[in-house]
Please model this.
Amino acid sequence: MIRLYYKNQNTVIKTAKILPISHSEKLLWIDLQNPSIEEVDEIEKLFAVNIPTRIQQEEIESSSRYTETDEYIIANSNFIQFYANNKYENVHVSFIIKDELLITYREGSLQSFAECVKKIKTNPKTFVNGKMILLAIFETRVDMDADTIEAFSRQISLISKQLSESQYDSTLAFKQIAALQETSMQLRANIIDKQRVTSSILKSNEFNSEERDRLRILIKDITSLVEHTIFLFERLEYLQNTVLGLVNTEQNKIIKLFTIVSVIFMPPTLIASIYGMNFKYLPELDWKIGYPLAILLMISSSLLILVLFRKRKWL
Model:
């Protein structure tokens, strides 16, 4: 699928076909979403660019994330798309800047792109070239990442509150914390990737002073998000340790209960064992009160252990 955005005076026109450009129009942005091989070849031939392949998009080397030549700039970045129940998908995006034109290539739907299109429709005057659209896409994504971090913070606070009120299932709590840890790590990796890409773009001479100022602000925002993700992960580790501590406490209580029960029944068991021995001569066998006395002795020994535990506050 190809989407093209033309600047026509104070408006931006969206179309799916490459149109002849008049003197009053200017091509700003070509968005390739899940394009066919023929569509990619067409764009490459018309604008003399090399669109990165999926393998090149996934490479993590600095030279693969950002490349600048005399003709154009290529920046590869990962965008994370969140769905319900903390499910997410990593979408690789390539940005190509050639003169004033932006070409994007992606193999997935991204909400940040849709939000950027809304901004273009709302205020088309501010989008005078493809670089402005590139900055708007990154700014939109960073704003969405900030919202995601806030949502994670609320979920962590909810789990923490449940733990403090003893309204929790340890198994469920472990699963929730593990899922949030995995998602927060993926989010942090995406944010750091944007930090690398935007820092590389800032070094380029193709951007003017106004665009550089926006890039600096964007990098500061990204840095603050990285620090916040570190805090989130530390908080999740603390909650995980708290759950482990609560589980250990419950296990210790159970073990303590079994230990106390075992100790209470040890004296009666000893007495019963003595009088259960098969010796021929046991003096107590001829006692008329031998049986009730043995029962009384077993009960008294158990009560004595209970009184001792109470006195030492072990119960």
